[in-house]
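Note to self: the last two entries modelled the partners one at a time, which told us nothing about the interface. This time every component goes in together.
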Amino acid sequence: MSAELAGSQIVIEILYLIASVLFILSLKWMSSPTTARHGIWAGEFGMLLAIIGTLLRSGLEDYHLIAIALVLGTIIGVPLGRVAMTAVPQRTALSHAFGALCVTLVGSAEFYLRAPDISPFMMSVLSVEVILGGLTVTGSLMAAGKLQEILPQRPLTYKGQNFVNFLLFAVALVIAVTLVLHPDHRALFPFMVLLALIFGVLLIIPIGGADMPTVISLLNGYAGLSASAMGFVLNSKLLIIAGALDGSSGLILSIIMSKAMNRSFTNVLFGAFGQVQTAAATGEVKPVRSATPEEAAAILSAANKVIIVPGYGMAVAQAQHKVRELYDGLTKRGVDVRFAIHPVAGRMPGHMNVLLAEADIPYDRLVEMDEINGDFPQTDVALVIGANDVTNPAARTDTTSPIYGMPILDVDKAHTVMVIKRSMNPGFAGIDNPLYYLDNNLMLFGDAKAFVGNIVKELGGGHS
Amino acid sequence: MNSSNLIDALFIFVLAGFIGFEVIRRVSPLLHTPLMSLTNALDAIAVVGAIVLVGEHKSRLAAIFGFIAVVAATSNIVGGFLITDRMLKMFKSSRPATKS
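The predicted structure of the combined assembly is written out below.
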């Protein structure tokens, strides 16, 4: 420590220290659903202490304006906290954009306050802050737009895309280096921010819906790292810690997600998925067997063990509440029903769990892929609702398949597989699924919500 | 920030990163969505930097940028904690397991 701290400063620093500890505890308590809600209280309390500590700082004059901003933020925040559960992925992407916007604006303001008098180190972290922040702002807005279906969901690719992206990023870096060496070139700064913003858009354009879980996680990580960089700029230990926690959370999640798709980061970011396979479209019509709701209900009620495999299609059809009724109906008949959750099912990490929990399905019935995969051979019926690629056995066997090597749920090993699907059109990634042509597979054609509803009706009818 | 402060800050960053890694690794995949909305709310601690910008009002630009930043971060804090809480409330275990 170079100088003695004044009394009030010590109080503030201690408040920040307590807040840091509370933030870590908050994440620690997220390890289990039984303690997770303590985590929120710890987080909220920590946040409150940090804000109080900041308001106590000497040198603040305009409390009026601060109060207006806090109230305005609350007014915007409340509806964002009340969105429907199905809108959680786009809400999350939007909040990454907000977080990054805050960081980018603070970084820019700090630059103009300090500009010519800025050390090379300070300018370097400031550049990291605004470049990461800037690309996260627009990247997250793009992701939110795609998830909300304001923007087209399919990946947009063109020749030389990676080259253009790389060039843009390189130019932004050159500007950053120039500013580090010559911080008096203040006019260059807006261009650096602008390039980061454009880069964020271009980064997300080639990303398809199936890659969203990885991308959202990655943007989460970027938002955290940029906040940490801001902590270096402002010499705020609390901010460095919170940013590092958020950054590592985002990075861990993106590692888990890309592993679950058997793809590397670079592959997710620099290679669109859908275009690889064109072979699927070759006219050959293979026979499939299909079944009616009555038949499906009969098979399900005769089973002892059923595993339901939900996917994004269940979310789109909003079928989770009907699925809950099916779960109730079968459980009442003594059927053991569990849910198999693939890590990348849906549009963000944990998406299926939240939807099923919303429908009041107990969380101990939701089983991760690695835990449940060994149980499929002893399972009477695997019921796939709106999932496709995560059940595709080609990932195990067909070395030419674009998803070869991706870990999948081994539904094909169950005695009977039933797949609820609108039609035989290949899924989002445009990859044909050999599962549908297996002898133990039955296709249940129709809308997920309506079909599950019909099965439930049949089950009820047979009982009462 | 002088160089000894910088080294301190780097120590804090690296150690916090390690803690983050170890803590988050243990989070149940069940809770990955609420985890993300929670870290989002915590990340909005950046609001402290923005508050200082607004409060000190050193320049017009800094105050305007700071104001927008406070609004954005506050909405993340409020919205993030709210939705995380709503999600976690939904996670229920099946009624007291009666294993016999």
